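Open question from group meeting: does this chain pack into something compact, or does most of it stay loose? Before anyone orders reagents, we agreed to write out a predicted structure and look at it together. Recording both the input and the output here so the notebook holds the full record.
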Amino acid sequence: MNSRLWIIVVVAGALGLGAGAAVRHWLLSPQNPTAEATTEPEQVSGAQEKTPDVIDSRRPDFSLPDRDGDTRSIGDFGDRVVLLNFWATWCPPCLEEIPALDGLHRALADQGLSVVGVALEDAEPVREFAREHDVGYPLLVGGREAFDIAAEYGNARGTLPYSVVIDRSGTIRATHQGALTREEAREFVAPWL
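Structure tokens returned:
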């Protein structure tokens, strides 16, 4: 690669990173600017991140439209273990994770697992993505409201993807920031199946 082309690639990459940081700041800046500064560091153990303020607490109730526009409540899955996954079609790690979550949903549905995706964007990109990729688990569409729901589930920083395990009684048991492989996701939910 000649040096001019290399410089163009490096500059384009830097501009892309800067634009991504600006969008993340604009979309995900906390409501209370001092909240992040006063938060204690979170403990990380293996694939699970322990968030003391949500672990072992009752799941917050919410209702959102699914990809077909029908309103669904998190309570609709109350008798099942739920792997609640916050994601977006513009998030590359989220897209890499979806086939693993879909495979897990299909493999463990008979054991009482439901994977539920909450998209942090508008409905049309979610519908198009679901059609193209034959996603078999419920996809709820939250737009900007979903950022607030994710924060209620322990994701104050707005990291995507972000996953939460909710047991059959509606108690939050584990959280995870970042993409999960199918094996990691299986280990993540196994104690509550």
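Observations to bring back to the group:
The first helix runs from residue 3 to 28.
Residues 1-30 form one domain.
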